[in-house]
Amino acid sequence: MNEETIVLANVSWGDIQVEALAKMFLNKLPFTVADLPTFRTNKTYSPYLARMPFVANEGLNIILSRGVGLVKRLTLTEEEQVDISGVNQKLYCFDLQKTTANFKAVEGVQVNGLPYNNYMVKLGKYLYLDKSVYTDNVVEVIYRTYVTPITSETSDDTILDIPYEVATILPTITVPCPILT
Q: Taking the C-alpha atoms of 128, 134, 139 and 145 in order, what is their torsion angle to the nearest 10 degrees?
């Protein structure tokens, strides 16, 4: 279980695009996110901007699958448990794909801030806990998450939910290969 705190970057999709363009074209004149709509119609910049969502997603998936994952915590309440017929009546079941956004995998469970190992995960998304654990306790699940994919519809001011370490290198890996003409 990863106990370190992940510092999220306060960086927008527009910031990533601006930095990637600056690296590709080594522009001497400064430009900002406000210039991106004009660049999307410019024959020099538009092919690169059109490919950036795919390349950025590819880069994020490569980085986040190699040890710099995005880990989040969620306090589970008894009200969030789902009723699955045939389940032992002494257990609560939580559908983590419905309870969390972009759920990927359970990293661990804590009760009152301490590791708790008496749980099961089935089918990769159902977390089973003994009902007795809820008596006067705070139960948290620590889970790994996917980053929300970037699309051509992602607005330039969308803040990316990525660790600071990833945000610092994302503009470099978001540089699309040159378009062959």
A: 30
105-117 residues labelled b (16+ CB within 10 A) or e (exposed): ebbbbbbeeeebe
DSSP state for residue 103 in the 8-state scheme: E
Q: What is this structure's pTM?
A: 0.67
* Residue 177: both structure tokens together: 């290969």
Encode pLDDT of 39-71 as tens digits. Answer: 999 998 899 999 999 988 888 888 777 765 678
- Chain position carrying tokens 């406000």: 34
Q: State the Cα–Cα distance between residues 73 and 77, nearest whole angstrom.
A: 13
Residue 172, φ and ψ in degrees, nearest 5: -70, -40
18-44 burial code (b ≥16 CB/10 A, e <16): bbbbeeeeeeeeeeeeebbeebeeeee
Q: Using alpha carbons only, how large is the chain's radius of gyration in Å?
A: 21
